[in-house]
């Protein structure tokens, strides 16, 4: 059986989509699998291949456990305490203790989708046949996810090396029937009660199993996968708002000509330019009207929009490649090899994932920065080529969108702070045994905040640009631009007029972008954007 099977159609519409996890030796699960489980509530099934792989690896661990020779994670302590040989009568207690002691997170709860993603990705590795976990433990992991039970995982506790230890420990604690978890109704209760309600027996961990449940990059990887999915929509959205701003400023779309981008063949740049050109096709504003100060060239924030957004797209492509490789990986320490060896390794180090998480945060900050500069240009009567100050109805009596740009600027300033790399830091732990760590979890957490804020930044540009286009009375926008304007107005984002309470308009614009409605509206005219 293939590693994964996604069942869609009518079953998916009823919330019955399922992901079947196989043996994982050739490839890991896909991005769509992760999103289906984390965000779509897809049900998980273990294939016969997965069960066979689990049983085979467990047989190897059981054989080693019966021998007198110490094996890390099977018959020894952990980390800096790995030098102690653990007698058979204490090994179950050892596995329980590592889960309990490592479930030491603090701070606010992380989001349900993050917990579901990291649990599913841990299950994927468990089913790879490289961890030595028994089939019944893997089945319990699937059962907990399928029941809609979400362990309480806290913001702080992972250094991104030896895996996302504390977050994964809180998940393992739920499997043991301990700690707290959120039920399918959203209420946090003791995990044991929730398991009992759903007929799930708590697991009794055996040799190596506690360690195997904790030792992975699953949290940071899950957040990377979801960020990439969100950014795919946001980069298309930014191309659309950049095109709307170009139109509102009576700019020239000649700079979007494909032959200009072909001589600097970065694929992301070409895609962004093509998207902008598609949105502007048929515009009665771009390239046709100039004021008393003719422009030879538009400002960088307008003219170089494809170059900046395109660089971000190429960064995303690199990050997606890293995610695909990590999804195909079995991250644990020690690992069970096909020839029967159980070997220590360093594959749990989160550097590959941490670097691209930080790289994406830089790209997100820059995309937000250029969008804010375009918005500011729309509001400045000295640079907007005939638009009223702050797009106000009666400037002086009305302030227009002055403070909307303040809000956008505050968001961009925060994006710049979030762009400082977490992975450049390392704090030794475990008595200097774990003396270099990735901080990948921290990189992922700040990227989630950055993506959230970028959505708001783009929403403000959308709000300003659509208002500005409508203020160009007598001029006809591109059909795609008109489709966007009509859709955003229908979504409750009001157009030009006297000052009013702006926060609801901005919230509606944010929701419009966040739900993908901006891209959908443009694509009714352009067809699929790149």
TrEMBL record:
Listed pathway(s): Amino-acid degradation; L-histidine degradation into L-glutamate; N-formimidoyl-L-glutamate from L-histidine: step 1/3
InterPro entries (UniProt xref): Aromatic_Lyase, Fumarase/histidase_N, HutH, L-Aspartase-like, Phe/His_NH3-lyase_AS
EC number from the UniProt entry: 4.3.1.3
Main location group: cytoplasm
Record has Cytoplasm as a keyword: yes
GO molecular function: histidine ammonia-lyase activity
Location within or outside the cell: Cytoplasm
Gene3D superfamilies: Fumarase/aspartase (Central domain), Fumarase/aspartase (N-terminal domain)
Catalytic activity: L-histidine = trans-urocanate + NH4(+)
Positions bearing 2,3-didehydroalanine (Ser): 162
5-imidazolinone (Ala-Gly) crosslink site(s): 161-163
Entry keyword set: Cytoplasm, Histidine metabolism, Lyase
Listed transmembrane segments: none
PTM (free text): Contains an active site 4-methylidene-imidazol-5-one (MIO), which is formed autocatalytically by cyclization and dehydration of residues Cys-Ser-Gly.
Signal peptide stretch: none
Record family assignment: Belongs to the PAL/histidase family.
Cross-referenced HAMAP family: His_ammonia_lyase
Name the UniProt record assigns to this protein: Histidine ammonia-lyase
Species classification: Bacteria, Bacillati, Actinomycetota, Actinomycetes, Kitasatosporales
């Amino acid at each position: 059986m293939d590693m994964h099977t996604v069942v869609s159609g009518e079953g998916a519409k009823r919330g019955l989509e399922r992901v079947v996890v196989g043996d994982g030796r050739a490839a890991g699960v896909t991005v769509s699998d992760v999103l289906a489980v984390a965000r779509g509530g897809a049900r998980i099934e273990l294939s016969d291949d997965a069960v066979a792989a689990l049983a085979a690896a467990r047989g190897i661990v059981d054989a080693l456990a019966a021998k007198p020779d110490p094996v890390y994670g099977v018959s020894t302590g952990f980390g800096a305490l790995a030098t102690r040989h653990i007698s058979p009568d204490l090994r179950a207690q050892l596995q329980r203790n590592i889960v309990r002691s490592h479930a030491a997170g603090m701070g606010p709860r992380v989001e349900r989708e993050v917990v579901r993603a990291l649990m599913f990705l841990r299950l994927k590795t468990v089913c790879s046949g490289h961890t030595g976990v028994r089939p019944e433990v893997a089945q319990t992991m699937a059962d907990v996810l399928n029941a809609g039970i979400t362990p309480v995982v806290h913001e702080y506790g992972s250094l991104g090396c030896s895996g996302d230890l504390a977050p994964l420990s809180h998940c393992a604690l739920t499997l043991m029937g301990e700690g707290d978890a959120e039920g399918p109704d959203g209420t946090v209760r003791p995990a044991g009660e929730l398991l009992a309600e759903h007929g799930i027996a708590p697991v009794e961990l055996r040799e190596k199993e506690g360690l195997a449940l904790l030792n992975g990059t699953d949290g940071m990887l899950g957040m990377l996968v979801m960020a990439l999915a969100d950014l795919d929509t946001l980069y298309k959205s930014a191309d659309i708002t950049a095109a709307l701003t170009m139109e509102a400023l009576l700019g020239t779309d000649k700079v979007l000509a494909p032959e200009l981008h072909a001589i600097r063949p970065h694929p992301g740049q070409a895609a962004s330019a093509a998207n902008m050109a598609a949105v502007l096709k048929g515009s009665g504003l771009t390239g046709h009207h100039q004021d008393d100060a003719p422009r030879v060239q538009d400002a960088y924030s307008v003219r170089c929009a494809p170059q900046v957004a395109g660089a971000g797209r190429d960064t995303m492509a690199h990050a997606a490649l890293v995610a695909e490789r990590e999804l195909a990986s079995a991250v644990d320490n020690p690992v069970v090899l096909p020839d029967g060896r159980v070997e220590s390794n360093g594959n749990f180090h989160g550097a590959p994932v941490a670097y691209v998480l930080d790289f994406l945060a830089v790209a997100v900050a820059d995309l937000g920065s250029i969008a804010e500069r375009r918005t500011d240009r729309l509001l400045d009567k000295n640079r907007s080529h005939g638009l009223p100050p702050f797009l106000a109805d009666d400037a002086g009596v009305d302030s227009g969108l002055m403070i909307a740009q303040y809000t956008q600027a505050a968001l961009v300033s925060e994006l710049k702070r979030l762009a400082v790399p977490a992975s450049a830091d390392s704090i030794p732990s475990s008595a200097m045994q774990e003396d270099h760590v990735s901080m990948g979890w921290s990189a992922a957490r700040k990227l989630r905040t950055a993506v959230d804020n970028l959505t708001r930044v783009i929403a403000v540009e959308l709000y300003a640009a659509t208002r500005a286009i409508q203020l160009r009375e007598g001029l006809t926008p591109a059909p795609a631009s008109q489709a966007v304007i009509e859709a955003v107005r229908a979504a409750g984002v009001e157009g030009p007029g006297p000052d009013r309470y702006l926060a609801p308009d901005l919230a509606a614009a944010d929701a419009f972008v966040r739900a993908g409605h901006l891209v959908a509206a443009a694509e009714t005219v352009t067809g699929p954007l790149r």
